[in-house]
Specification:
single chain; alpha+beta; five-stranded antiparallel β-sheet; 13 helices; 13 strands; 27% helix
Length: 346
């Protein structure tokens, strides 16, 4: 028997602007087929799977359940909470692909790492930068049009490489170009008129790519440390460099979710039993903070973890910083990191 879902991606040809990459008319939104109305704009899928990958399903974060528990629930013609289709097993990238991004001779052309040694006049210690590279297994693209770009692997608790994000940065460590290693490799094979290797063909059949927390592989190494959770890997890197490495159990282990919509149950359930301090990015109206605050309250009970949320940026941000959607890294990059090492994360 087929099941009709109440919330579905609109079948109409009309497209919207993506809330993540902001590309015009490349975004399909979810519609409530009982009312015919679009639901919250954050629920939808970006067409640009390789370069953006934004996708938020209303059945994955409690929305579908929440709208059916009010005093006047909608008709039960459509089942709101139903088992999601079983996802096929995730195919990881081969470890050899990760290893090829870790050649030390490439690091000299990496703009992001170079900036860490400048850091607005407060350069980081060379040993700490080397340790960051090893801890998060970040690397460099050594040739081609993305030469010098930072490679950012998402490695799960089983040490499987879920995906490798590729980012180029400017002199202020702001992102100027964003891609995925599998996409770059695919285009390289096509350009050379060569067949894709079997592992890449298999990997490209995945439904999604960035499907775990950045730094998830460190959870086993630091089983008792509290977690500092932010949106982007760059913020997790700066947080670690400024506040210190999790060498003892009172120090925070910094992790990242990937993007705004990725702060959800599927990614965060691995944090069961942990104390988690969350740093949402800024938004013009404070919407991100409010959304993450609500999600944190829900997930605290569902995951049985102690989620709390920092309002630091909400308290100190300027209107311009809100407009730009700044993050904690934008704040830390202008400060003397040595003053934070002895301070307590808040």
């Amino acid at each position: 028997m087929s099941i009709e879902y109440r919330y579905q991606l609109t079948s109409k040809p009309r497209k919207f602007n993506c809330p993540s990459c902001e590309k015009v008319r490349r975004y399909s939104r979810y519609v409530d087929i009982e009312t015919g109305k679009l639901i919250d704009e954050k629920y939808g899928r970006c067409d640009r799977e390789d370069s953006c990958g934004y996708y938020l399903n209303p059945y994955t974060d409690g929305y579908a359940h929440a709208v059916n528990v009010g005093e006047n629930p909608p008709t039960d013609k459509f089942i709101l909470e139903r088992p999601r289709p079983k996802l096929k097993p995730i195919i990881p990238l081969p470890n050899e692909v990760l290893e090829r991004t870790r050649f030390s001779e490439y690091y000299g052309c990496n703009k992001f790492l170079e900036n860490l040694f400048i850091n607005g006049g407060y350069e980081f210690d060379v040993h700490d930068v080397k340790r960051i590279i090893d801890q998060y297994e970040i690397g460099t693209i050594g040739k081609g049009y993305m030469k010098g770009a930072l490679t950012i692997p998402y490695i799960d608790v089983n040490d499987d490489v879920r995906t490798i994000q590729v980012k180029q940065f400017d002199d202020n460590n702001n992102t100027v170009k964003n891609s995925w290693l599998h996409s770059i490799m695919k285009q390289s094979y096509i350009k050379r008129n060569e067949s894709l290797p079997l592992w890449l063909e298999a990997y490209l059949t995945n439904d999604r790519f960035a499907t775990c927390l950045f730094g998830a592989h460190l959870l086993k190494k630091y089983p008792n440390n509290p977690i500092a959770l932010c949106e982007a890997p760059k913020t997790a890197i700066y947080g670690t460099l400024c506040y210190g490495f999790p060498d003892d159990e009172i120090k925070y282990l910094w992790l990242a979710v990937f993007n705004k919509s990725s702060f959800n149950y599927d990614r965060c359930k691995i944090l069961k039993g942990r104390k988690v301090l969350i740093y949402p990015d800024l938004s013009k109206t404070g919407k991100t903070y409010k959304d993450w605050l609500h999600k944190a309250k829900v997930m605290s009970k569902k995951i049985k973890a102690e989620f709390s949320i920092s309002d630091l940026l909400e308290r100190i941000a300027t209107a311009e910083q809100r407009e730009d959607g700044g993050d904690l890294a934008d704040f830390l990059i202008r400060k003397d990191w040595r003053k934070f090492r002895a301070a307590k994360t808040r």
